[in-house]
Specification:
The chain is an alpha+beta fold and about 100 residues long. Helix content is about 35%, strand content about 30%. The protein contains 2 helices and 4 strands; from the N terminus they run H-E-E-E-H-E. It has helices at about 15-25, 65-85, and strands at about 30-35, 45-50, 55-60, 90-95. The protein has a 4-stranded mixed sheet. Strand 1 and strand 2 (about 45-50) form a beta hairpin. Helix 1 (about 15-25) crosses helix 2 (about 65-85).
Length: about 100
C-alpha cells in the first residue's frame, strides 16, 4: 500500500516528512536510500538518506529555488521533529542554481 502524498503547502508537512523518513529508516536495512518527490508546482525534490551510526543524514536537492528556500526555512523544524522521534537528523537543502 502506497503512503499518502505529502502536501507541502500544508502547515504540517514537516511532521509528515519526518514520519516518512522514520518509516523508510525502519523499513529498509540499507545504508543509503534515495527517493524522488514530485510535488505539484514545486518541481522535483531528490531526497537522499544515509545511516550514520544511530542517526540518519538527509540531503534534499530541489530543482526550483523557491522549493530550496522552503526546505531551508523548514530545517530547524525538521530537526526538532526528528529528534522528538529519536532520529538524529542532519539535513541540508541544495540543488542546481
Amino acid at each position: 500500500m502506497a503512503a499518502a502524498p505529502i502536501v507541502m503547502t500544508s502547515n504540517d508537512w514537516p511532521m509528515k516528512m519526518i514520519g516518512r523518513i522514520e518509516m523508510i529508516r525502519d523499513a529498509l536495512d540499507a545504508v543509503d536510500t534515495s527517493i524522488r518527490l514530485v510535488p505539484d508546482k514545486l518541481g522535483t525534490i531528490d531526497v537522499s538518506l544515509r545511516r550514520e551510526g544511530d542517526g540518519v543524514a538527509v540531503q534534499f536537492n530541489a530543482q526550483q529555488a523557491e522549493t530550496r528556500q522552503l526546505l531551508a526555512d523548514a530545517q530547524p523544524k525538521l530537526a526538532e521533529l526528528a529528534e522528538a522521534k529519536g532520529l538524529k537528523l542532519s539535513a541540508q537543502a541544495g540543488g542546481d542554481p
